[in-house]
Fold:
Amino acid sequence: DAGVIQSPRHEVTEMGQEVTLRCKPISGHDYLFWYRQTMMRGLELLIYFNNNVPIDDSGMPEDRFSAKMPNASFSTLKIQPSEPRDSAVYFCASSLDHRSYNEQFFGPGTRLTVL
Amino acid sequence: RKEVEQDPGPFNVPEGATVAFNCTYSNSASQSFFWYRQDCRKEPKLLMSVYSSGNEDGRFTAQLNRASQYISLLIRDSKLSDSATYLCVVKARGGTYKYIFGTGTRLKVLA
Structure:
């Protein structure tokens, strides 16, 4: 079975450009999570969806970040305009439901570098 | 104070050694607890959940102390392949449920 799929795997862009990260969760999973990982701050939850509906976006750093989930098999995280401090690894994860001990399955991540 | 705190390490241990990591959490309403493993430049993967009564999976033992708000991971008979970063994860409710990750503890097992 395919796991969580993310694209692109690497992105290098210049400050001010729009960046779109994509995620396909595991089929049948009701929850989708976007995380950002940096050396300084570790893994931070940005936003999560339940059945395509955003539930908690309190981790989204500012208005430059937006996320959508138009259907159960696709989500995007957009940064516009991008800044050098957005450089990080962005992970998408999905889980079956929200029962206490359900595992989160992570995608391979998108390594973003903003010059 | 961070919601989930871990010693960043690195812990450098010889093969065959026993090593233990601790993690403390600040939210007493935390519901579920996990250890994830992350290899260099890879995604995190679930190592084991941590149950109230403690649990074991082969060489790995996890313990939870709700009164003191910490969880631990013990690795016996360390292997070279155990070298990784170990992330402590707490699922807590603060309006909505969230998974809070520690920044991780690096382990290097030396030949």
Summary: The interface with chain A takes residues 31-32, 34, 42-46, 49, 87, 91, 95-104 of chain B (CB under 8 Å). Chain B has no helices and eleven strands. The radius of gyration of chain B is 14 Å. The mean pLDDT of chain B is 92.
